[in-house]
Amino acid sequence: MDRRDFIRRSLLGAGVGASALAGMPNLAMAQQAKDLSGVLGSTHIPAKAKRVIYLFQSGGPSQLETFDYKPTLDKRHGQELPAEVRGEQVLTGMSAQQSSFPLARSVYDFKQYGESGAWVSELLPHTAKIVDDLCIVRSMHTDAINHDPAITFLQTGFPIAGRPSIGAWVNYGLGSDNPNLPPFIVMVSSNSGGQPLYSRLWGNGFLPSIHQGVQFRGGAEPVLYLNNPQGISTSSRRDLFQHFKKLQDLQYQSWQDQEIQSRVAQYDMAERMQASIPDATDLSDEPDWVFDMYGPDAKKPGTYAANCLLARRLAERNVKFIQLYHQGWDQHDNLPGGIKAQCKKTDQASAALIQDLKQRGLLEDTLVIWGGEFGRTNYSQGKLTETGYGRDHHPGCFTMWMAGAGVKPGVYGETDEFGYNIIKDPVHVHDFQATLLHLMGIDHEQLTYKYQGRRFRLTDVHGHVMKDILS
Amino acid sequence: MDITQFFGRFHVLVLHLPIGILMLAALWELAIQFKRANRPILLNIIWFWGAVSAIAACILGWLLTQAGGYSPDAVFIHRTFGILTALAAIIAFVYLTYFKSQHKFIVSGLAVGQLFLLFSTGHYGANMTHGETYLVDHAPNIVRAGLGFPPHKIPRSKVTDLSQADVYLDVIQPMLEKRCISCHNDSKQKGKLNLTTLENIMQGGKSGPAIVAQDLHGSELYHRITLAHGEKGFMPAEGKTPFTQEQTNTFKWWIEAGAPATGEVTQFIKTKQDKVLLNNLLGISDEFVLAPIEPISLQQEIALVDAGFVFKTLSQNSNYLMVDLSVKSQDLTENALNALLNISQHVVSLNLRNTHTSDGQLVQIAKLTNLQKLRLEHNPITTQGMQSLVTLANLKSLNLYKTQVDNSVLPLLSEFPVLKSVFLGETLVTSEQLEIFNNQSDIKIQGIMPVSSFVAKAGK
Fold first, then answer.
1. Is the ipTM of this complex over 0.90?
2. A346 and A93 Cβ atoms separated by less than 8 Å
3. Residues B112-128: pLDDT tens digits?
4. Any chain B CB within 8 A of the CB of A180?
C-alpha cells in the first residue's frame, strides 16, 4: 500500500462530519511531506548529484564542428560517403533523394586542450578552457531521426508523446529540497528559434500533474502576477484561499482524485513563490564580474546566458531539476554560418556556468549536462561548395558532455574515422538516462509507476548505467 | 571452409531425434508389456526411424570429432555408447518387426537397455559440451557430497574497508573469476593456461608466465588485457566484456607490488592514487564506513522542522542525515542549534548558507562529529571561528565562499585530518597566498576564478 492509498483509505474510513474535518490538517501535512520526500522516501543509494542542470541544445548540434574531430574528412573532402560506411542507415526524406553524398569537412579548426587532450573546435573557445571538468561522450546514439520524436525520446524515454519527462520522474521519486520553489524549472532561451518545443517535453505524462516542470517566462519577469492586485491585502488573499481549500477538500473527499491535491498544492506553492521568486530571480545583487563571466547577453533577461546565470541561482537554492532549452541547432544548409552564431550565443555562458558552480562549491553535487537530440551527417546535404555545406540529421552518433557530481572528466567513446558509426563504448539514450538517475541515487529499474495495467519506468525495459564514467 | 565440419556440427541438432524417437518407442513397448495391450503396427515404423536417426547421429558425430578439440577419452566413451545405442535400436527394430513370437522378457530387456544406452550416451555427450560439473554447479551441498563433489565455496563477505581486504582473494581473484576463468580452468585450458590458482598463474601457458612479479613487460596477462580492443591476442577474447581501466590499473598495481599471494591490501598501498583506485574497485565509498545508526525520533524530527530545517536521509539504507537550513531564509537560532545538537551523531552534511551563523556558534557545530560536508557560504565567519572546527575528524568538504576568513585560515586548513576540498572565493584570502598554499598542499582549494583572464583570453 503506498502513501496515497493510505491517505485515501484513512479518509474514507473517517467517514463524514467532525472526524473528517479533523483529518484535514494531517492530509495537508502528509501532502507536504510527500512533496519533499517523493515516492521513494529517500534515494536507493547515496546520491552523488543532488541536482541537475540540463542545457538542452535543441535541433541537433553538429558533432563534427564541435567535439568530434575527423582528419579523414579533411583528406576525403568532396568524395562520396562509402556505401559500407553508410551501411543500412536510414536517411531522412530531406537528403535521401540526393544523387550524391559528398563527405564534408569542418571548416573550423580543432585543437587539443587540457590534460585530457580533448579535441575542441575553434567555435568553442570558452568550453575549450574547461575541458578538464567535462566528461565528453562522443558515442551517444539514438533511435529517432527527426526532431520531435528524438527530443521526446531523450526527455521521456519514448519517442511517442505521453510519458513523463526526466525531471518529472526525478521529482516523483525524490521530491523537493526546497519547499518554496518548484522542484523542476524550465527555461527556454528567448534569443533562439527553430524547431518548436512543446510543454509536454517537461510534462508529467501519466504521473500526477504536480510533477510537471514549471516554465519561466523569457522576459524581465520570469513569473507573472507575484504581487497582490491593487487593494487586496495578503491576509484577505490568504483568507480567500483558506475557504477555497475547504471546498477543494470537500470535493476530494467525494472524488478521491489525485489532481485535486495537485491543484491545492500548486496554490500553496504559488503563495510561497510570491516571496521566493523575487529572491531567486532578481539579478541586481550580482556583481559586474559575474555578468562579465557569462558574457554580454547575461544582462538581457531570457537569453541563454541570463538563463545560465539564473540556473546557477536556482541551484544555489536547491532546485532539483533545472532544464534549459536553446533552439536553433538544425543546420541543414549554411552550416558554417549557422553553427557559428549558435556557439557564440551559448559557448561562453555554458563554460561560465561550470566555472561559477565550481568556485562556489556547487559543482561537487550538481550534474550539468550539455547536448542535443541527435547528431548530423558527415556528408553534405545540398550542394557542397568551398565554404558552404549543410548536414542532415544523423542518429548514429552524436556528442554530449556532462560535468560535475560523480562524473569522471575525460573523453569517452569513439566514432569511426568518418564520424558516422560508433566503434567504441556506444551509449544509447536509455543508458544515458539510467546513468543520470544513478547519479541522483535512483536505481532506474526500481522507480516505476503503474498505469493502464503495467508498470512504466523512464528507461522502459532498457538502459545500463555507464559505470566507466562514474568517479 | 571445411565440409566435414559443416556436416559435423549438425550432430548437435540431429542427436535429439534418436533421443526422442527411441525413448518414445521403448516406453511404449514397456507400457504394452505391463498393460497387456495390443501392439500397434505403428511402433515398427517408430523403431525404424529411431534406428535411422541414431545411425545418422553416429555418422555426424564421427565427422564432428575429426576436427579435434575434444579430449580423446571423453570422445571414446561417448562414441562407444553412441554406437551401442544405434546397434541396440537396429536389433530392437529387427526383433520386434520380423520375429513372429516375442518373449515378454526379451522385449522388456530391449526397451530397458535402449533407455539405459540413450541416457548414458546423452550424459557423456553433454559432459563434453557443458563440462562435467554443469549439473552440480548449483546443487545443494548435500547432493554434491553424495556425488563426491566438494561443498560450495563460502563467498567472501563484502569488503567495507580496505584493511579487511585480502590482496588476492578480494582483489585479484574475483576479477579473474569474472572475466577469465570460464576459458582458463582445470578442465578447459585455452592456450594451456589455467588461472584458477596463483601457482598455475605464475606457471603460465603457451605464451609464457601470465604474471611475473614486479615485471609488467614480462607479465603476459597484463600485456594481453592492455592491448587495443580487437587487436590479435587481446583478452578477454571473442568480444567478451573487457577489463575496465580501473581493473587493468589494479593488475598493474598488484604486479608492481610483487604480485603478493596474500596479505592485507593496505600493506601494499604506497600512494594516494593506489588507495583511491582500490576503494573505487571494491566499491568502498566513505559513506558506507559509517556505523549503522538508529533513526531519529519523531520529537527530534519535529524540532528540526520547527527550526526551519529541510532534511533527508543519506539513502534508503541509511539513517544518517543531510540537513539544510538555507532554503527557508531563517537564521541559525539557539533553538535551531539545539535541534541540531540533539541529533549530533546523525548529521553528515550540513548547509548553513546565508543563515547569519556566527563564529561563536561554530563551537557548537564542531560537536557534529560525523560531519563530512559543511556549507558556510555567505556568513559573517572569520578565521577565529574556524579554529573550533579543526576537531571535525571526518570533514571532507568545507565551503567558506563569501565569508570573512583571511590568509591566516590557510595554515589552519592543514590541521583538518581528512579535508579534501575548500572553497574560498570572495573572502579576504588573497590569490597569491592561495597559490602558494595550493602548490604545497594535498587539499584542493578553489578560490575565485580569475575572471579577467577568462574573458580576455576567450574574447578574441
1. no
2. no
3. 999 999 999 999 998 88
4. yes
